[in-house]
Amino acid sequence: MLCTVAGMSGCPEVVRRWYTGTCSNEGGACGEGGLCIDGFCGRACTSSTDCGDGVCVQQVCVPPGYVCNTAYCDDGNSCTDDLCNTANAACRHELHAGACSDGDGCTVGDECVAAAGTFSCKSAPKCDDGNPATTDSCNPTSGICTNTAP
């Protein structure tokens, strides 16, 4: 039997590669909406299943190792260490141990913590003078405390 369509009964599956050919215009366009990456023309895609051993990022197939050299896994959370598996471009986010900044000048002791499956920056107010008779306030921009007596 002659195989004319990949996947047809008796025909071997065709492994699609992430690229369509070679190129020399690094970062430039190439072939049907593709992009030149590391000397290869990444094919256009709608999902990673279109990319064989590659990953579909912004509608272009790229090799997993390339994905991991970009901001692909950055979740924008300063309390995570964003890790990328170069074999398959899978992202993993782990708690970043240590200090962080919540951007509020009225807090102290900002520290990354894990709670209920999320990682966040925990802090404590810095203007409490311990006197229940005063009203404690703070300017979040300047960080200046005010403790006003009635």
Keywords for this structure?
150 residues, mainly beta, four-stranded antiparallel β-sheet, 1 helix, elongated
Compile the SSE list and pairings.
Layout: E1 19-22, E2 29-30, E3 34-37, E4 40-42, E5 55-57, E6 60-62, H1 64-67, E7 80-84, E8 91-95, E9 107-115, E10 118-125, E11 135-138, E12 145-148
Antiparallel strand pairs: 1-4, 2-3, 3-4, 5-6, 7-8, 9-10, 11-12
The DSSP helix count reads 1
Q: Please describe the biggest sheet, giving its number of strands, its sense, and whether it closes into a barrel.
A: 4 strands, antiparallel
Kindly state the percentage of residues in helix: under 10%
Radius of gyration: 26 Å
* Helix-strand makeup class: mainly beta
Largest sheet strand order:
1-4-3-2
The overall pLDDT average reads: 83
Given as residue ranges, the uncertain stretches (5+ residues, pLDDT < 50) are 1-8
Number of strands: 12
Instruction: Give the CA-based shape.
Output: elongated
Q: N-to-C terminal Cα separation, in Å?
A: 95 Å
The ordered H/E elements are EEEEEEHEEEEEE
Strand content: 35-45%
What does it look like?
This protein has one helix at residues 64-67; strands spanning 19-22, 29-30, 34-37, 40-42, 55-57, 60-62, 80-84, 91-95, 107-115, 118-125, 135-138, 145-148. With 150 residues, the protein is an all-beta fold. Among the domains are: 19-62, no CATH class; 76-128, no CATH class. The strands form five sheets. The protein has a four-stranded antiparallel beta sheet with strand order 1-4-3-2, with no helix packed on it. The longest helix has 4 residues, at 64-67. It is elongated and about 75 Å long.
